[in-house]
Amino acid sequence: MSEAASTHVALAKSTRNSATTGSTTDGALLPSLAPLLHEWLPRQRWFAGKGRPVTGFRLVSATEMVPLGGTAGPGLLHLLLRVEQPSRSARAADDCYQLLLGVRPSLPPLLAGALVGRVERGPLAGRTVYDALHDPRLADVLLERFRRPGSLGSLRFERTAEIPAGLTPRVLDAEQSNSSLVYGDAFILKIFRRVFPGTNPDLELPLALTGEGCERVPAPVAWFEAPGAEPLTLGVLQPFLQGARDGWQLALAALAAGRDFLPEARALGRATAEVHTALAAALPTPALRGTQTRQLVAQMTQRLEAAAQAVPALVPYVPGLRATFDAVTDLGVRGSGWAQQRVHGDLHLGQTLRSADGFWSLIDFEGEPARPLPERRMPAPPVRDVAGMLRSFDYAARTHRPWNPEWAARCRAAYCEGYAQASGSDPRGEPELLRAHETDKAVYEVVYEARHRPDWLPVPMAAIQRLAQSAAA
């Protein structure tokens, strides 16, 4: 049976005639696109199901943002699509992806790199389908929808401020788990590719921080979602920090020039502490004690065991890494408790920006994309973010030849010093908890690199070896 024939179609309820904009109910649409998507989706950087065959698709919703049958220009089709793949867990749900597809009779040369394919049959037969974000005409349609908030088919657009017209869009080609458009160096729109029910923390937390007057995060200007009992956050528009450089680039430049990075590391520690303070005020959470500590350790242990199955190179280190987690349980049994709150969730140098005046901002509050959304929205000890940044300094140091572990150690210390200056609490004062979170982060990195960047796998594996030996000592 062909992929198209095996495709399951669950159409969204029509709200408008498909000759105009709005939801479309053409039952032949998805089967006609399925053969193209079957080949195109697994090649995308943001597709999370690599290494597993795609066995079918189910349509969640289809919205014509620009009519597909028009003659004046390209059509724009918004899809929410469940991708069926075999899973090790019987309870695992199929991933839902957001696609924005342009439709033209043929592609101009400038859009050749965005090609999805030519449709052979169905309502779009003979037309060419492509990734619409690469088309400036269609990218501008998205910004126009933010200027006129409200509903369009199965989509709802919201904004908090005026958005000027005439901003030229361009797509960012950086390797990401989502897609981003920059409009005239004034705004950046993040399009979430794999979407989950519930408010995405990349919208929730910046809104909360803005409400607390925290200036360390660009305030959301607009967003769009698929409404429902648990809305799906689809994209967030924020100010674009023109001329800012991310911490990863700055750290590598310092390494290449043989310079210390200590003032910047301290400033990053202060910025992190300020964000944590504002989040704790905006979204207060009780302390981590007893049963919650055991649950935290159980989750870390489960992730370790799953990672060892996925990456056999981890197996020899599992006993030592498990001992690191057990040390936290032992302290909890003896009555120790720790602060917990909403945190960034995936903090590293690449998630920070320094503007021309030296001011540091934190961005991308989505959390680790591989984790389920409910897990990413759970409170955690602030040292989870600290551990992520400490791992990032190690990553940076290992890109330089010869490896400079002293550079990383000095940056790690300076970052903790800056954090302590702003918060009054030195994260190194909770060594067992910090080491456990650094271990958990390194385990996550091993799985991520094994799946997406195998050449980088030695970096987290070196940390795994160090942390396992430290636990055994």
Task: Summarize the helices and strands and which ones pair or pack.
Blueprint: H1 3-6, E1 22-23, H2 29-40, E2 56-66, E3 75-84, E4 95-104, E5 115-118, E6 128-131, H3 136-147, E7 150-152, E8 155-159, E9 169-171, E10 179-183, E11 187-191, E12 194-195, H4 201-211, E13 222-226, E14 232-239, E15 245-246, H5 247-256, H6 262-282, H7 290-310, H8 318-333, E16 352-354, E17 360-362, H9 373-376, H10 383-399, H11 405-423, H12 431-452, H13 458-472
Antiparallel strand pairs: 1-2, 2-3, 3-4, 4-6, 4-12, 5-6, 7-8, 8-13, 9-10, 10-11, 11-14, 13-14, 15-16, 16-17
Pfam families: Mak_N_cap
Keywords: ATP-binding, Carbohydrate metabolism, Glycogen biosynthesis, Glycogen metabolism, Kinase, Nucleotide-binding, Transferase
EC number: 2.7.1.175
From the 3D structure, determine the CATH topology of the largest domain.
Aminoglycoside 3'-phosphotransferase, Chain: A, domain 2
Strand content: 15-25%
Query: In whole angstroms, how far apart are the ends?
Result: 58 Å
Figure out the total of helices. Answer: 13
- Which class best fits the helix and strand makeup? alpha+beta
Q: What is the CATH homologous superfamily assignment of the largest domain?
A: Aminoglycoside phosphotransferase (APH), C-terminal lobe
* Overall structural domain count: 3
CATH class of the largest domain: Alpha Beta
